[in-house]
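Hi L., both proteins are below.
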Amino acid sequence: MIRALFRTLAQAFDPALLRVMARSFILTLLSFIVLGVAVSWGLDRLHPTGKAWLDPLITVAGALGVVALAWYFFLVVVAAIAGMLLEPVARAVERRWYPTLPPPRDAGVMEEAAIALRFTVLLVIVNVAVLPLWLLPPVGAVAYPLANGFLLGRQYFDQVAVRRMPPDQARLLRLRYRGRIFCAGLIIAFISLLPVVNLFAPVLATAFMLHLFGGFLPTGGTRSPLPVASRANS
């Protein structure tokens, strides 16, 4: 895992990744701006009280409240954007570190979309469930990273793994290395909450998981994987 982290940082200024990071930055920033503007516009059109002095205050408070909630659900935003940037990040990482790997399998748009949608919904549900726990700060501070670390590790791994193997084999490999994948998820959750750095989190987290997955393959990812089913059951 340490090697995966160092390799990710070593490639952080690769021009190919910098271009993807720029897209990640723009997409992440736009998601907040659009959300805030949309809520402000909606509240402004509703005129909640009909009082000229109060309605603008409600509009501003509503927009700020939504931005605060958006920050809380930032991990969901990061996860959604990561799915959109998977291929360019994977190509840049594999071109530099795993040049002998064969071309990835054609997972299909529906398969990839199903994985992304399933875990985005799970992230929303789990974070909504954890939100009341922040009324007890010590409990919320522990539950939030643990729950998101588990889900983020699982999501990023599945998105990366299905490029190289069918979903059932990816699941067996995930179960085999679930401890390391969970720790990787905690690291991704931490990166996703660091100011400024979190704007580039989808790219960094995807690259990190690609390296972790590469380490699970025979000879450190330098050739195609063995049938996972037979290895997992041995």
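That was the first. Here is the second:
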Amino acid sequence: MFGLTFEKILLIGIIAVFLLGPDKLPHYAAQLARLVRQLRDMANGAKDRMRDEMGPEFDDLDWKKLDPRQYDPRRIIREALADEDPFKEQSATISRAEPNPEGAYLKRKRAREAALAALEPAPFDTEAT
């Protein structure tokens, strides 16, 4: 938890004994335990409230699927910038020919270049600052 090993926790405890002193240490340890208990109760309360509001769907939900750590930003950007429309309906016919990705790439490149060549340049204002 948080990269704390037994040695680090022991070192923190020894430093706390020297800084707080043996007479105040039990009081602060009790306060820390109370704080941890309150945080745990708050987390459980939030989970119970969410379960009540969502109903039976809460137990059916796959929480690992919603974990933001699983998303790769490079993949998301690559998919967003892809030339193909993911929502475009696919045709019912199946081609028997082998796919030629280089030919498709060149075809898309030529189409982009033709579209850019057809565009007029932006107007230029000589008086603008």
